Amino acid sequence: MSKYSDDLPQLSGRLFLTDGGIETYLIFHERLDLPCFAAFHLLRDPIGRTVLTRYYERYIAIAKSSGAGFILESPTWRASTDWGDRLGYTHDEMSAVNRDAIRLMAELRARHESKEMPIVISGCVGPRGDGYDPGCTMSAAEAEAYHAHQIAAFAEAGVDMVTAITMTNVDEATGIARAAQKHRVPVALAFTLETDGRLPTGQALGEAIAQLDGATEDAPVYYMISCAHPTHFENTLAPSEPWTKRIRGIRANASKRSHRELNDSPDLDDGDPIELGRQYNSLMRRHSQLTILGGCCGTDHRHVESISLACRVVT
After folding, report:
1. Which residue, 280, 125, 253, 259, is CA-closest to 189?
2. Domain count, the chain
3. Is residue 2 part of a domain?
C-alpha cells in the first residue's frame, strides 16, 4: 500500500537524493551482462537480488549521512512490454516483474527508513524506444495504452509515484502522464536533453513542458532533466522564465560527450565526480527549487556522494 502518494515529502523543499546510472554501473563496474540494458533481469535469482540490494543500500547510506531524504527508483527502466518480449517474458510475467521490483523497494524501505530519512518508492518508467533517440514516435494515445500495463502493475504494488526517465518526446511523456492519472499515481517526468539543451526532437525544453502541462492539466508533480551533462543545459534554465520552476530535479550524465559519442564509445566516461558536484551546487544556487538530485549515464555512488556534499550546504 502506498505511503506517500497523497503527500510526497520531496515537495517540501528539503534535499532528496536518488541513485546514479544503474545500468552503466552494473555493466562497467559489476561486469554483469545486462541484455537490452535490463536491470530488472537481475530479479530472477537470489544473486541478482543481492547485487541490486547492495547497489541501493550504498546510496541509502549516502543519504543518511547527508541528512537527506531518498527516492528509491525501481530497476524497471526497461521493464515494459516490448523490451520484455525481446527478453522472452510474457505479458503476465512483465506485470509480475514490475510488482516484484516494487516489493524489493518496499523491503529496503522497511529496513532503512527513519523519521529523519523518509524514503519514497518510485516506479521507474523508461521510453518504449531508445533514451537518446526519439526514433519512431507514438501518439499520446498510443503511448498511454502502451505504458498503462507497467503503470498498472506499479499501482497494484503500492508505489508512492512513478517517474519516467529519459523521455525524448512530448507525445510519449503525455501518454505516460495520462496513464498515471488514470491509475491515480503521482508522476514526475525527466526529459533527455542534447548538447544544445533541447530535446532529441529539437523542441525547446520550455515549449515541451508547456505543451505537456497543457495536454494533461498540469498532471506531472514536477519535471526533471536527465541524461545530459550540466554544461549542456545550464544556459537553458533562465531563472526569469516561470517554466523553470516546474523543474525540481536533475539526473545528469557524468560525461560531457554527446549521446552519439557515448553510444559509439566502447569505454565508460565517468567524468569528474568532484567537478560534477560543484556544477550541481552552481545550478542549485541559481535555481532554489532544484532539491531532487541523482545521476544518469556513467554516474555511480561517488558522483552522488560528491553531489550531496556540495549541495547540502545550499538547501
Report:
1. 125
2. 1
3. no
pLDDT at 214: 98
Judged by phi (left if over 0) then psi (alpha if -120 to 50, else beta), residue 210 lies in: alpha
Do 197 and 238 form a contact (C-beta atoms < 8 A)?
no
Question: What is the CATH classification number for the domain harbouring 59?
Answer: 3.20.20.330
Alpha helices in the chain (DSSP H): 22-28, 46-66, 81-86, 91-112, 140-157, 170-182, 205-216, 230-233, 259-264, 273-286, 301-311
pTM of this prediction? 0.96
Average pLDDT estimate for 64-89: 97
Inside any domain, residue 56: yes
What is the SS3 string spanning 106-130? HHHHHHHCCCCCCEEEEEEECCCCC
| Rounded Cα distance, 282 and 230, in Å | 10
Query: Which residue range forms the structural domain that includes residue 207?
Result: 9-311
